[in-house]
Design brief:
Helix content: 10-25%
Number of domains: 1
Structural class: alpha/beta
Largest sheet: 8 strands, mixed
CATH topology: FAD/NAD(P)-binding domain
Distance between the termini: 40 Å
Number of strands: 22
Radius of gyration: 23 Å
CATH class: Alpha Beta
Length: 571
């Protein structure tokens, strides 16, 4: 029998960016909050002098143990899903801070078009532009409504950047200047400008200078060591929940973090959540934590899985198009790439930072005419210098042999003579892409795994080649002698890393008929449950998702405080 603990005002499931933001805001507002994190505690000191590519980059030390819990995958409903036994397409963070510890720090705002994508597409191109099986929908919130929360997140994290000339209007500049321009970045800017494009420095959570945020948290500037992605930052220069929002919540004395606590059910009665049931993974003990409000802020897959296991919300049925939990799973098209091989110039590709780079949005959203194109939306194009660590990187021209003396010769020659320009494409939702519980495979506790049904569509294939061609034009203008670019996008491959940008499943919207949560990420079906994260995205944009997750978290925190005082569904 489970042990029952004293009741708290709010219990948070998963203490990453969204959970940390909400904990900080609610405790500052006077609420008592318990944060449950199934992984271990993390702190900056864990990463002092630990530039260990093998441990973190290749063996995924910060990631979820797939032998205890994983996902299953199938490309269509016609085949049986199988478990992902080793990491490939995406990386699932675990531990205090979640994926906010091992991210690169690329912190974009979605375009105004994204939030009204269906209505704006129909307005410009007509209904026939949207394929019958594409399930995109407006978000029930506009960019202008979300903009103040973007601003708040950027000030908390100290985002370094410059204004996107093709982005939405801003209420303030970035709190810190953009990162330094390297020779490679300058070469991209010059080439893109000659092509009449609009490059701008990538918004970065890697601080360009020492910064103190509005909560009084001070952090040092980035050292450009090149160990961001898949690594924790030893300087605290990369904004993550552990060095920004979690200390603020802790300082109030109203926040209790319990690590090694795997939440398995949301408990509910009479249409209201009453708390959660979790297992202490160090002892195996089952524990009930009663709470007035439950906030689910774990990763996309776990948000969906927890709701389905708890019987909250109507599961999505792809055959009828009814239901909402698991609906509109989307990914990212990181395949519009072109690598340029330079004969004379050398670049320091081993130094860098997770969000050191330059970006342009001329082919993102609806910033260009799609009338004669067989896809909607688009993607950002960038050159980033994240640090080409030696184990995982060995670029050679496409006509090089894969072994032998010539391979070695080219490996040495081009180690610092290759620059990659790539498109980060959007991912549109389709009726037959969804998440549900696997009927066969279970985790270490006997609970069903989450199942992904997904494959690239003609939309994705057209978009990937388009972005690759545009990237190649820039690389050619930069002066590369040899260009290796994507020619064709094949089926989705879960064994090859692309991005950790999974979205959807508990989507935001204006109606309970088509969405799971309202614009405050409050569940339509259970008003004291809030579900925050990229699981709320009805589709995925041509950007990294974290900036939008942060903005939604701040809006949700505001909504929870209102709900605490007034109750009912928020409008």
């Amino acid at each position: 029998m489970a042990k029952t603990l004293p009741k708290t005002d709010v219990v948070i499931v998963g203490v990453g960016w969204a959970g940390g933001i909400i904990a900080a805001e609610l405790t500052k507002g006077g609420l008592n909050v318990v944060g449950l994190e199934r992984g271990r505690e993390r702190k900056t000191e864990d990463y002092y002098m630990v530039h260990d590519e093998l441990r973190y980059g290749s063996r995924y030390d910060l990631m979820q143990d797939l032998s205890k819990e994983t996902i299953t995958f199938r490309s269509t409903e016609k085949i049986r899903a199988l478990p992902m036994r080793q990491y490939g397409s995406f990386l699932l963070g675990e531990g205090l801070g979640g994926s906010g510890v091992h991210w690169n720090g690329q912190t974009f705002r979605f375009l105004p078009y994204d939030f009204e994508i269906r209505s704006k597409t129909i307005e410009r191109y007509g209904k026939n532009k949207i394929p019958a099986d594409m399930s995109i929908q407006d978000w029930g919130i506009t960019y202008d409504q979300l903009e103040p929360y973007y601003d708040k997140f950027e000030k908390t994290a100290g985002i370094s950047g410059e204004t996107n000339p093709l982005g939405g209007k801003r209420s303030a500049d970035y709190p810190t200047p953009p990162m330094l321009k390297t020779p490679a970045i300058t070469k991209f800017i010059d080439a893109a400008s000659k092509l009449n494009l609009h490059p701008y420095m990538m918004p970065s959570a890697n601080l360009s200078q020492t910064y103190t945020n509005p909560d009084g948290v001070s952090r040092a500037a980035c050292q450009y060591c090149g160990y961001c992605e898949r690594f924790g930052c030893e300087y605290g220069a990369k904004a993550d929940p552990v060095v920004t929002v979690i200390p603020v919540a802790n300082k109030t004395g109203k926040f209790e973090i319990r690590t090694h606590s795997n939440v398995r059910r949301i408990l509910h009665k009479g249409g209201k959540a009453t708390g959660v049931l979790y297992t202490d993974v160090t002892t195996g003990e089952e524990i009930e934590q009663p709470a007035d409000i439950v906030v689910v802020t774990s990763y996309v897959f776990n948000n969906v899985r927890l709701l389905l296991q708890s019987g909250i919300g109507k599961p999505y049925n792809p055959a009828t198009g009814t239901g909402v939990i698991g609906k509109n799973y989307a990914y990212q098209v990181i395949k519009g790439n072109a690598a340029g091989f330079f004969e004379e110039e050398q670049f320091n590709n081993f130094a860098g930072a997770g969000s050191l780079g330059v970006n342009l949005d001329d082919y993102n959203g609806d910033n260009f005419d799609h009338s004669d194109l067989k896809f909607i939306h688009g993607g950002s194009i960038s050159l980033s210098q994240t640090g080409q660590r030696p184990i995982a990187n060995n670029p050679v021209p496409p006509d090089s042999p894969s072994w032998g003396s010539d391979f070695k010769k080219n490996s040495l020659k081009y180690a610092n003579r290759v620059l990659a320009v790539g498109g980060q494409g959007s991912s549109m939702s389709f009726k037959h892409h969804f998440l549900d519980l696997d009927p066969t495979f279970k985790d270490a506790f006997g609970d069903p795994l989450i199942r992904i049904t997904f494959d690239f569509e003609e939309q994705d294939r057209q978009l990937a080649v388009f972005l690759a061609n545009k990237s190649a034009e820039i690389v050619k203008q930069m002066g590369a002698k040899t260009i290796n670019q994507l020619k064709e996008l094949g089926p989705y491959e879960i064994t090859t890393y692309q991005s950790t940008h999974n979205t959807g499943g508990v989507i935001i919207g204006a109606s309970p008929d088509t969405s799971a949560v309202n614009s405050y990420c409050q569940m339509w079906d259970m008003d004291n449950v809030f579900v925050v994260g990229a699981s709320a995205f009805p589709h995925n944009s041509g950007y990294n998702p974290t900036g939008t997750v942060g903005a939604l978290a701040y809006r949700t925190a505001e909504g929870i405080m209102t709900y605490r005082n007034k109750g009912g569904l928020l409008v």
